[in-house]
Amino acid sequence: MKQLVLGILAHVDAGKTTLSEALLYRTGAIRDLGRVDHKNAHLDTHALERARGITIFSRQARLTLGDTAVTLLDTPGHVDFSAEMERTLQVLDYAVLVISGTDGALGSFSTAAPSYEYTVTDADGHQVDVVEMLDGVTLRSYTVTLGQTNTLTIGSEAWLKVVNGSHTLKIVATDAKDASVTRTLTFTKAVTSIEFEQTLAMEADAMPTKALVNIQGNFPAGCTLQVWICNNGNDASPTWEDVTQKVRTGQKHYFTNKTKTAAAWGVKVKAKLLRGSATETCYIQSIGGNFA
Length: 292
Prior knowledge:
Elements: E1 2-8, H1 16-26, H2 47-52, E2 59-65, E3 68-74, H3 82-95, E4 97-99, E5 104-109, E6 115-118, E7 120-122, E8 128-134, E9 137-143, E10 150-153, H4 156-161, E11 165-175, E12 180-189, E13 193-197, E14 202-204, E15 210-218, E16 224-230, E17 241-242, H5 244-249, E18 253-254, E19 265-274, E20 283-291
Parallel strand pairs: 1-3, 5-12
Antiparallel strand pairs: 2-3, 4-7, 6-10, 8-9, 8-11, 11-12, 13-19, 14-19, 15-18, 15-20, 16-17, 16-19
């Protein structure tokens, strides 16, 4: 839904509150017109306002026009309340700077990191600097091109460091007048499995006959770690051999496979970690070893 801030500005007794309440009534935000009698006004709620029939304090209300959510600001018009007017004008000035979209939850993510597309507009056309943050840490800062679609992304390395649970993304835009607006988004990381497989096989001059695989990480009760190895890793369909138990006990594995279809022998390792019923943090930190 689009967002709009609308301020009703005019001299005292010009009908600002009457107009504001008429707009609220026509859009269904209120059920009756209270401005006919100042004592029943919806926006002028202070006792002095109702007694004198004037607006002293700015009020804001929400209404919907089609696909646009409007924040309506009703303002005082008397010179005695110029300070209140100044604050309202400042709000309206800040509203000139807009980040598209709305605050909210992006959902739960278990594989790829979330991303968010947005545009920044500034009615005055000033230079606008943007900072994108994840949990208060800057992901990127840059000078935006007004009206151009931008994408907030979390790099693969940063995503790996994000633990399971709730997190917050923020987009902060600041213009040349130091007016600033923020878009706040939340998401949940809920990774329940992770898989690793070497892209390239480790070269071998002759057929590997044995190997020792070592995996570092945290594997609490309830999770499942599976590890496989092959000595014909250059083949289109490698012969994977389960070495899970040997990895856990630190034992050597002797290859049972004796054939290959590729030109050269090569060793590959792959591993899979399933969270299962584990409540503690599960992760694979590193995979190493040797073969002969």
